From TrEMBL:
<dbReference type="InterPro" id="IPR003856">
    <property type="entry name" value="LPS_length_determ_N"/>
</dbReference>
<dbReference type="GO" id="GO:0005886">
    <property type="term" value="C:plasma membrane"/>
</dbReference>
<dbReference type="Pfam" id="PF02706">
    <property type="entry name" value="Wzz"/>
</dbReference>
<keyword id="KW-0472">Membrane</keyword>
<feature type="domain" description="Polysaccharide chain length determinant N-terminal">
    <location>
        <begin position="14"/>
        <end position="67"/>
    </location>
</feature>
<keyword id="KW-1003">Cell membrane</keyword>
<feature type="transmembrane region" description="Helical">
    <location>
        <begin position="30"/>
        <end position="49"/>
    </location>
</feature>
<protein>
    <submittedName>
        <fullName>Chain length determinant protein, Wzz family</fullName>
    </submittedName>
</protein>
<dbReference type="InterPro" id="IPR050445">
    <property type="entry name" value="Bact_polysacc_biosynth/exp"/>
</dbReference>
<keyword id="KW-0812">Transmembrane</keyword>
<dbReference type="GO" id="GO:0004713">
    <property type="term" value="F:protein tyrosine kinase activity"/>
</dbReference>
<keyword id="KW-1133">Transmembrane helix</keyword>
<feature type="transmembrane region" description="Helical">
    <location>
        <begin position="177"/>
        <end position="201"/>
    </location>
</feature>
Length: 209
């Protein structure tokens, strides 16, 4: 009987605590609504003001060709990392033309998990420019490797893998819905925290007095 009484008492106390919490939130609902609205509005204004020029991204992939010889066996026409560095240095006109630009064009690197697949990425506001620049790089690679392969009796030329891909959507487009949603949830939670924090401060002052 004593255990049942204790359990019932604990349940009643929990119900009272929850009721008091709900009453506190309800009494401060205007503050919570206004605070949440302000935080959400700030996020919305941020989205409206942060309207950067759209940046698009283009990608192209190459599979490195191979050379074969009696003395060295089979090896790539050119080391992929060396070629990536050469492309980055040769075609990065951004350093000269636009020192204030945050773009690093092109970005050539070895694809993850491979030793012979080269990924080349180019970013710009002009999708046609991206296409032209990637085509220039393509011509450079194929012509360079074709010349190297002529020095050997047996060679497999470097080739493009798949089609060139240029994004239709801007890669720097802000995620408006996500930003507003996060701001709303954050504002709501923070407003409730402030309500209970202010209540705690007031209770502390009353006890002190």
């Amino acid at each position: 009987m004593k255990n049942n009484f204790t359990n019932n008492q604990s349940m009643n106390e929990d119900e009272i605590d929850l009721r008091e919490l709900f009453i506190t939130i309800w009494n401060k609902k205007i503050f919570i609504i206004i605070f949440t609205f302000i935080v959400t509005s700030i996020a919305f204004l941020y989205i409206l003001l942060k309207n950067p020029n759209p940046i698009y991204e283009g990608k192209i992939y190459f599979e490195m060709g191979e050379m074969k010889g009696e003395t060295f066996g089979s090896k790539l026409i050119e080391n992929t990392n060396d070629l990536a560095m050469l492309i980055n240095i040769t075609f990065d006109e951004n350093i000269i033309d636009n020192k204030n630009s945050n773009l690093e064009n092109p970005s050539a690197k070895l694809s993850k998990g491979t030793t012979k697949i080269l990924e080349i990425k180019y970013e710009d506001e002009d999708r046609e420019l991206i296409k032209n620049e990637l085509n220039k790089i393509k011509e450079f690679i194929l012509a360079r490797h074709e010349g190297i392969s002529k020095l050997y009796n047996i060679a497999i030329n470097t080739k493009q893998i798949g089609e060139m891909k240029i994004s239709k959507e801007a890669i720097n487009k802000p995620k408006k819905a996500l930003i507003v949603t996060v701001a709303f949830v954050t504002g709501f939670i923070l407003s409730i925290f402030l309500v209970f924090f202010m209540q705690f401060i007031n209770s502390f002052k009353e006890e002190k007095n």
